[in-house]
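Message: Just now I want nothing more than another pair of eyes on a protein record. I am handing you a single protein, as its sequence and its fold in token form. As I understand it, each token names a local backbone shape. Take your time, and here it is.
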Amino acid sequence: MKSSEAINELSGALCKAQSQMGGAVKDSSNPFFKSSYADLTSVIKAIKVPFSDNGLTYTQFPISNEQGVGVVTRLMHISGQWLEEECVLPIVKRDPQAAGSAITYARRYALQSIAGIPTADDDAESAMLRTEPEKVISAEQCESLADLIGEAGADEAKFCKAFKIKNRSDLPASRFSRAVTMLTTKIENNKATAA
């Protein structure tokens, strides 16, 4: 791993961002292994808002060497501090499609690792053993969700069903950023469709 001379500000920002992130949802399927996995889009969705709110960003560049192909992932803070790591995967077949698949795979795992987020099933929150009840969103966050639901033209009942809650106010605080990301994506998609 490589880093800037100091990483104190980056570390503090990453700590705050991680407290706001949920897991990357396993929403893609692999029919060959009959399993589900969190794709690159899910990983990006999980980190997008918490990273932005805490002055964090990242870049990923494809690399290749005699061992295979992969990416260099650099996590950066608004202060200029950074962390960087390479992830190289072997490829059996040396063609563009195999290289592209390996690079996408490397991007997903490298980004997930550098951000420190786990993958989770949609109902992983309910499957976790907890020693104390999880905190729910604040009244302000609840109102913010109401505004986003209205702006997105979303059905609140379907929203609650998707998050396995009875009411908007029951949303666990740890899932707030995921809900915001989901609704803002819907708003952006609606605007793009209307344009």
User: Anything to note?
Assistant: Helices lie at 8-20, 40-53, 96-115, 124-127, 139-152, 156-162, 176-194. Residues 26-37, 121-131 have pLDDT under 50 and may be disordered. Residues 2-120 form one domain.
